[in-house]
Amino acid sequence: MSQATERAIGPAPSRLSMLERLASAAAHGTFLIVGIPLIAPLAVLMILKATGRATPYVRAQALQATLFQALLFILAGPLIAYFIFAMNGQLVATDSPIQMAEAFAGAPGPMLVLLIGLLIVLAGSFFEFVAAAQALRGQPYNLPLVGRWSRS
């Protein structure tokens, strides 16, 4: 593999240690387990930097995970918050499924916004799962929209 190719997509899989693979997978995969965006990839990076084991591959994967999770938070966060405020506490005050259906029936706009927000989160979770699996295998992978930014 040439140096330009290695700089663009990371080192060859055979040259990555198991620690690098696990750390890179953890930067992506902890979002799926913990569900807290931005904190997990930064924690992985800070721990490895403190121990002196943060390689360029791990740094690139952690940066990519951080940027992607920030993008998900920016896109889906306001949509889900809008739904919560638009429903004005109606979901909390329901006693039965019928009352919940009536609360939703009066607000098709917020329901559509919630659906879009949840689709964004589900799509992001899928891409994070794929990125974690690829990182665990030691294969280079670029997340949509932010993959190129993390390599520059």
Overview of the molecule:
This protein has helices spanning 3-9, 18-34, 39-51, 56-87, 97-105, 108-137, 147-151. By secondary structure, the chain is mostly helical. Helix 2 (18-34) runs antiparallel to helix 3, helix 2 runs parallel beside helix 4 and helix 3 (39-51) packs antiparallel against helix 4. It is elongated and about 60 Å long. The model has no long low-confidence stretch (mean pLDDT 75).
Question: What is shown here, in short?
Answer:
It contains seven helices and no strands. The protein is mainly α and 152 residues long.
**How many strand elements?**
0
The helix/strand class is: mainly alpha
Helix content: over 70%
Main β sheet profile: none
State the separation between the terminal residues, measured CA to CA.
19 Å
Give the overall silhouette.
elongated
Rg over CA atoms, rounded to whole Å, is 19 Å
Low-confidence parts lasting 5 or more residues at pLDDT below 50? none
Question: Can you lay out the helices and strands and say which pair or pack?
Answer:
Elements: H1 3-9, H2 18-34, H3 39-51, H4 56-87, H5 97-105, H6 108-137, H7 147-151
